[in-house]
């Protein structure tokens, strides 16, 4: 059962985070075989961490709650809040299978389902009720496999409620030459193009793991 877990760092938690990264990595090591993606969100300047993402296969919702609670970063007071959704990996691959450009930035995009109030305010009539979740995700998977997206879409999938069926939006991990190019990719994504998403939440993101993030341990 896949879960998408995004934790936002509390203000001023940088020193705590740096001190707790080694035990955090130790805690995550047994989960690596079950992970689709992991890594921190960072500032635009790539010089400070703003949060942590993990997409991980766990037994059930109770196990997901324990995963969050037992993370040394959570126990140490680094996080201001944590959001968790059920998830489906539409490309059926992990971030480690993605071949990208080392000098291109990467992005986490959380695109929530547009609320009924937002749809009414915009005069829009599109909703996921107009098409099944299966139809939406099928179109998203086909889009992500197109050659034009192959160098951009690292991971894509629906954000689902605890029941695993209620559609609450889409999450994407993208790579692009810059933010404008990444935004253009999102505009072409089927659920976004169909008006099913509200305003997307954007974060700069990096591949996680000690092998990729040693620069974040040193004091600044």
Summed up, the helix count is 8
Please mark out the parts with pLDDT under 50 across 5 or more consecutive residues, or reply none.
119-125
SSE order, one letter for each helix or strand: EHEEHHEEHHEEHHEH
Radius of gyration: 17 Å
Largest sheet: 8 strands, antiparallel, barrel
Assigned CATH architecture of the largest domain: 2-Layer Sandwich
Structural class: alpha+beta
Number of domains: 2
CATH class of the largest domain: Alpha Beta
Averaged pLDDT, please?
92
Q: Outline, from the CA principal axes? A: globular
Helix content: 25-40%
Number of strands: 8
CATH third-tier fold name of the largest domain: Alpha-Beta Plaits
- The fraction of residues in strands falls at 25-35%
The spatial strand order of the largest sheet comes to 1-3-2-8-5-7-6-4
CATH superfamily of the largest domain: Dimeric alpha+beta barrel
Oligomer: single chain
Descriptive account of the structure:
The chain has two domains: 87 residues, 2-Layer Sandwich (Alpha-Beta Plaits); 110 residues, Alpha-Beta Plaits (2-Layer Sandwich). It is 30% helix and 29% strand. It has 220 residues and is an alpha+beta fold. It is built from eight helices and eight strands.
Helix/strand layout:
Blueprint: E1 2-9, H1 14-28, E2 35-42, E3 49-57, H2 61-70, H3 72-75, E4 79-87, E5 106-112, H4 116-122, H5 133-144, E6 153-160, E7 167-175, H6 179-188, H7 190-193, E8 201-205, H8 210-213
Antiparallel strand pairs: 1-3, 1-4, 2-3, 2-8, 4-6, 5-7, 5-8, 6-7
């Amino acid at each position: 059962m896949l879960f998408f877990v995004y934790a936002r760092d509390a203000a001023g938690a940088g020193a705590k985070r740096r001190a707790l990264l080694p035990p955090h990595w130790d805690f995550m090591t047994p989960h690596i075989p079950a992970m689709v993606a992991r890594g921190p969100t960072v500032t635009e300047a790539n010089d400070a961490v703003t949060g942590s993402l993990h997409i991980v296969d766990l037994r059930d919702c109770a196990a997901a709650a324990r995963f969050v609670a037992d993370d040394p970063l959570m126990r140490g007071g680094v996080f201001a809040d944590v959001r968790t959704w059920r998830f489906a990996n539409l490309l059926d691959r992990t971030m480690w299978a993605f071949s990208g450009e080392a000098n291109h930035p990467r992005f986490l995009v959380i695109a929530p389902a547009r609320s009924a109030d937002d749809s009414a305010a915009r005069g829009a009539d599109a909703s996921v009720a107009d098409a099944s979740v299966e139809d939406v995700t099928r179109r998203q998977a086909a889009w992500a496999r197109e050659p034009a997206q192959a160098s951009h879409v690292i991971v894509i999938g629906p954000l689902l409620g605890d029941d695993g069926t209620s559609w609450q939006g889409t999450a994407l991990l993208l790579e692009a030459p810059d933010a404008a190019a990444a935004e253009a990719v999102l505009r072409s994504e089927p659920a976004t193009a169909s008006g099913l998403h509200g305003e997307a939440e954007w974060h700069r993101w990096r591949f996680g793991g000690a092998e990729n993030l040693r620069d974040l341990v040193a004091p600044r």
